[in-house]
Write a structure and sequence with these properties.
416 residues, 6-stranded mixed beta barrel, 15 helices
Length: 416
Amino acid sequence: MPFETLIGLRYTAARKPGGGNRFISFISLISMLGLALGVAALIVVLSVMNGFQKELRTRILGVAAHAQITGVDGELGNWQTAVDAVARHPHVIAAAPYVQQQGMLSFDGQVKGVMVRGILPAEEDRVADFARHMKSGKLERLQPGEFGIILGAELAYSLRAFMGDKVTLIAPQGMVTPAAVLPRMKQFTVVGIFEVGMFEYDSGLALLHQADAQKLYRMDERVSGVRLKLDDLFVAPTVVRELASSLGNDLRVSDWTRNHANFFRAVQIEKNMMFLILLLIVAVAAFNIVSTLVMTVTDKRADIAILRTLGASPGSIMRIFIIQGTLIGVIGLALGIAGGVALALNVETVVPFLERLLGIQFLAKDVYYISDLPSDLHWSDVWIIGVVSFTLTVLATLYPSWRAARVNPAEALRYE
């Protein structure tokens, strides 16, 4: 073992009870624990942010589509041809037509504006997750000609409508009569209530059978578009570009990254800012190593002078203290990564335990739609945190090591 490594390892632990080295080793321990705590906090917080991002994406895409095809004028005539064309793409695993229009729901003196979506239940179940979000009823209860309707939970609550109630749907397109232009109205029976956990959809979306929606809005056999489900949602922009070039200019193709771009961009910006803020904690912990090494250099001036007189070069003296500081950082970094990964993988277990122990709930169900702390550990984040933290640790050792290399042996040994 090189003597620089041996001496650096010996300096990290105290050998003289009651001496200055004992205090320096205590400071080294505090530096290790501070770095470990900062790294662990950074891993856990980023994992929770990833979990929230994944949960929100899952809930949004459980209702919205990975991609959709619409006509330039908002209507699609021969939609079967479009479905056959996109079905040949290797990444497209399902396609379903839909009718989407605006309307107003009225019941028991309450009136609410809604987005009306006409669907084919069997086809819609392949591209969306409404079936597993049904609180009451089933998606299959939407039958053509029976004029059933499925409401979001918040929408049903605001209308005070329950299963079996008859609500009135008012279409904005009016009927022209000799007396006036009258709005088209039709009574629908509530056959289901869904709750996906996104207020936008739970409070403003109503589902009809596609045939009933076509009759109400006088669309004949036309639809508003076709919704697509892909085998990998992250290839949606590439798939959309390929489909747009093959389908022609009379159709418009978009994907979820465009329709919800601002929302997901805001979540990503929040995650990046959280990373930078918590990285400052890691930086503070890493630069605590500076004070530890400066105290060690002051305490070991006589040792440094003796090593210099024995022929050790300034570079060797620098390496001794770089090794000592790096060892402190590596131990702290290893403890932080181990603790952070363990906690991030068990957040769903640890948080409920703390809630039961303390008798509180961190995310109340009546306030937050996501009442649990989700966690999604990305090993790429762990790798980045480890590299950045190690780099900060090494940088923190340079100045004290350089000061140690400049110790004058004659001055250091004058009063020894």
